[in-house]
Structure formats: C-alpha cells, structure tokens
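Q: A reviewer asked whether we had any structural model of the full assembly, not just the individual parts. We don't, so I'm hoping you can provide one. Inputs are below.
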Amino acid sequence: MKNKFNIFIIIVFLSFCFVVFFKGLNHSNTYTPKNNNKKNIPIFEAKDFNSNTFTNSEKIFEKDVFYIVNIWASWCVPCRTEHPLLMKLSKNQLVKLIGINYRDNQTNAKKFINEFGNPYSQILIDNDGILSVEFGAYGVPETFIINKDKIIIKKFIGPINQEIVEKIKLIIK
Amino acid sequence: MKILKIFMIVFLFIGFSYLKAGEKNDELKSKILKNIRCLICQGQSVYDSESDFASSIKLIVDRKINEGLKEKKIYEFLTGKYGDWIIYDPKLNIKTYILWLLPLFLFLFGGVIIYKKIYKNEK
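A: Here is a predicted structure for the entire assembly that you could use as a starting point for your response.
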C-alpha cells in the first residue's frame, strides 16, 4: 500500500515537471513589456526638432485631443514602412501626432522628413534615448496612444500596420 | 604660512571626501546596473551590454543617483516603466511567490522524508 502511494507521488511529481517544462517550451524566451498598462504621461523637457528650443510636456500635450507619440529614427528601416500610415493618420482631426527622433543624426532626420513627408505636429529630439525610456520604450519604432486625460492607454511595439491603424481609429472615435 | 597650511589641509580634506563620495556613487551605480536586465540583448545585464537601450539606462541610473534617489526608488522607477522582469532579483509578490516559496517547500518536504527514513531505521 505504502509502495503504491510512493509510486503515485513520484508519478504526480514527474507529471508536474513535464507539464511545467512542456509549457515553458511553448513560451517565447524574449520578454516584451506589457502593452496595456495605463500610465500617466511622463513629465519632461525636450528640444524641439525645428526650432531647437526647449519645450516641456505640459506645453506639448496642452490640447484636449488624443495624441499619438511615435518614436522614430532615419536609420530605422521599419520606420520607413510605417511612415505612409502615419501620414494618413495625421490627416485625422481628432488626433495629434508627436514624433520623438531617437538617437539620430539631425541632418539625416531632416532628409527623411523631406523625403517621406512630415506627419507630426511636433518633433522632439532624443539624442541620448532618455526621453524614450521615460515613455517606457526600448527601441524604435514604438507608438503610444494618449487619451484626453493625458494617460497612455495603449502602446504598440514595432512598426504599425493597417490593422493597428484601424484599432487606433476605433480608440480615438 | 600657517594660513597656507590650514588652507592646504582643508583643500585636501574636501578633495578626498569628494572623491570618496564619487567612489560610493560608482559602486552603487555598477551594483544597480548589474541587477538590471537589458531588454535588447536579454542574456546580458545593462552593465555588460553596449546596446542603445543599455546606454540610455546607464545615463538614467547615473542621473537618478546624482539626484539623490535611493537604490529601491531607482528599481521602482524602472519596474514602473518595464515591469518586474527588468530586475534580475525579483521581489516577493503575487506573481513571484511560487519562485520564492517552492524551493523552501521542496527543502522542507525533503527534510521530512530524510527525517522519516532516519527515524524508521533507528526504530
């Protein structure tokens, strides 16, 4: 009787280990921060791309509209694929696009904007990547949706596509 | 001459205490950076990584230390942005309790088995 109980315990333990490892195998090893955590916008000061003067978060997000913050760089290839979609989004009156130019050469960034168009109502310079960290980003491109209460309600890691644009349109409706 | 000597002593004292404070900050900085995971090259700590993300985090940690923030507050800032996973040494909370308590439970369970075996042999 006792032997049977011991065998039962061993089988249960081995099954537990099997399930844990089997589940673990299906999980991706790459961690991506959660996209749906609602957070207040960070308080920051940053240099404006066009005027080269300092501005702050209060002035940037002063209007009672939805904001889309997009982190981009001229050296970032996926940023080129999402750019036409950002151009389309910028035509929407319900939303304002803010660009954060991440660790970029300003001449190249200007060339990029001249070549592909400027969807942003304002572009901020982030030479050392600190501003992007304040938003909770860790690479380019990343896109944040900010509601009228100045809360980051959604974050998209990687280039946006048509499906994401539809989601954004639903959110800002 | 006496004034010059006093001035020299005060100058050296201030200089050394400044160096000592800088050394302390450097130690704290490397301790924190070694405990933060780089999200770009996930096998490495921010301390070891040369990625853009890691260099931004290095700058931020440096800035926060100079602002006088304690180690715990810096971790809170980073976990607030990226979640608990960014720290190598996870805190005990609802998501990590199995991680912390399972080894203890297995240790106690093993102890009970060994104790029972010895007790049985003695009998």
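A: Points you may want to mention in the reply: Residues 92-123 of chain B form one domain. The two ends of chain B are 88 Å apart (CA to CA).
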